[in-house]
Please model this.
Amino acid sequence: MSILVIGLNHDTAPVEIREKVTFPGDSEGHSTRFFSGLDGVEEVMILSTCNRAEVFVVADDAEARKEMIVQGIGQVHGIDPEPLRDFLYIKTEAEAVRHVFRVASSLDSMVIGEPQILGQVKESFRRAAKVNATGPILNRLLHRSFFSAKRVRTETEIGSAAVSVAYVAVELARKILGELVDKAVLLIGAGEMAELAARHLIAQVTRPIVVVNRTFENACSLAGDLRGLALRMEKLEDGLIDADVAITSTGSCEPIITKDRMNRVMRKRRYRPIFIIDIAIPRDVEPQVNDIDGVYLYNIDDLQAVVSENLGERKQEALKGERIVEEEVGKFMNWKSSLSCTPTIIALRDKLETIRTGELTRMNGKLSRLSPAEREIVELISKSIINKVAHDPILFLKKAGGRTRKSFYLDTAQRMFGLDANQLEQHHHTEESPIEEEIDDRYQG
Amino acid sequence: MDLIFFKIAIVLYLGASLGYLLFLLLSSDTRARLGLWFAVAGFVCHSLSILHRAIFSGFFPLATPFDALSFFAWIIVLLFLIMYYRDPSPIFGSIGVPLALVLMLFGSTLSYQINEPIVPVLKSWWLPIHVLLALAGNGIFSIVAIGGLMYILQERLIKTKQIGRMHKLLPSLNTLDTINRHGLLLGFFLLTLGIISGALWAGSVWGFYWSWDPKETWSLITWFAYAAMVHLRIALGWRGKKAAVLAIAGFALVMFTFVGVSALIGGHHAFGPEAFRIRTRGL
Model:
């Protein structure tokens, strides 16, 4: 029984290739069912996002089934798989496990630490489970990947630093003005980036945004879009007096906010702090404005510099994340190697023997009244009881080795007799994800 | 054995300071939480230590320099715990606990022996009222000054676009300015009450309210300085960096009045029975 991951991502394939491999119709589980039906394939899950497309497979022999899966990917998309080959990665066993954990923990993402990927992995898993394509190994693998992702998120600061200009702007606004709820936002001019930054800010505040534009009609229509108020360009100074955050991005060739003008505004504001974000090129705000007490001026380059610094910080944190993943891969591989006949049988015998000797020791006080010969008999009886109890399950497990879905029987036996060392931790984790129970129900059906 | 709680508190504050230091170096929240627990445990022991000293001396334990410093440190930790409750940012603890630790270590080098029976003047209920008000005022002014330092640093980082770890650790400019506004008013209020209660105490034991003792003079100078600050802040709308600079300058004056005057000039606020004996003989 081995784990196999075949796929491509933003690192290995350009967008022209990625857009060809999307597993169409998999929301209904078509592709998943297709792979499930292949020879030797026991469990399947498909993960497809805009940056990656991969198939997770549990098969009897990963090496032997690789080729079949690659062909299958071509078949599902109705294309020749040959040109894809250069872009595909093929990972087996520990390497495959590591890959799944890294993907779920957002260590393999284009923007390291971005939070969406975990949700996408969870959704894909739910989908595969719905069409009965997953089994004990993938269930365990995915749950462990969610657990790793959670650890990486809480034990490192991989997701803490803002990595987009708009988020950096919001965070800076918070560091200057504190809570943003009751703050006033002013948008001067229009432009995609400015509007994006404004939208992020609006999400934090309750007061309507004020929009200023050279053409009043444009201001009105944008204000309508953003559920704000429009203001004429002549009234810009009034707008600046009221605002706490001003985003400017006009097409003007000359700065529209000069130091003199801002000095005037600040006097009227009684030096209440203001955060000005200048996204325009050429600049809308004279750089010297930053020297005025209470004015904090950032232009697009300044914000970009913060973004790249934060990205560097995330990479540092990612190293810690890799260590956590490595630990979890080790634990998973331990569990997986225990999932074969001999270790399971040994674990079952050990467990029964522990129970037997435990009970005898507990009753030692009462047994001491018996003669040595009688005690010998009690010993024999207890031994023969556990042997008889163990006989059928052991026979069953030995036969299971030859069956398909072997891992299912072994896993069930381990759960039934409580042989799984990691079970406790696993149990804690599943309390948060109802998927496990869903799947358990399915097993009973 | 007589300072057992005090010593345990020092060890716990040391643990807390280490936790906070690791937090500052690694920005690890678990270390900060560790620091907080140590600080809370230290505070409990510290409170027990003060209680122990009260039982030992038979009255409010402020008769020796050791006790006064210990009590001041206790008030600082108390204020930082209250601040933490209002705004759970570990940065306050990272400064407050080491500060208290330094005060206590300094205090532990000072005399804590009560050789002679406590002078009757000190066995008045005015003692805890006067000292509590004065020390609480000083404690709040020290927080305002630390907030001012943080404000100047944070504002410099933002203006010069150094958005790194330090920037993220420090509270927002708005929070720091709010600490300044509230702290200034509350501290000024307590300082005023502290001076009035001192005058009433003096009036009740010596018959006159004001004697131009050096401490009294400097307290009055400090009071005028803070009155001016309150005026600048409230009436003239000074805020931000200017207010932060004033807070730091004001605190220098507070520290001189609190520590410097007794050490350099003397007067009836100095510790030890001599100061009081001279005064009573003079009467």
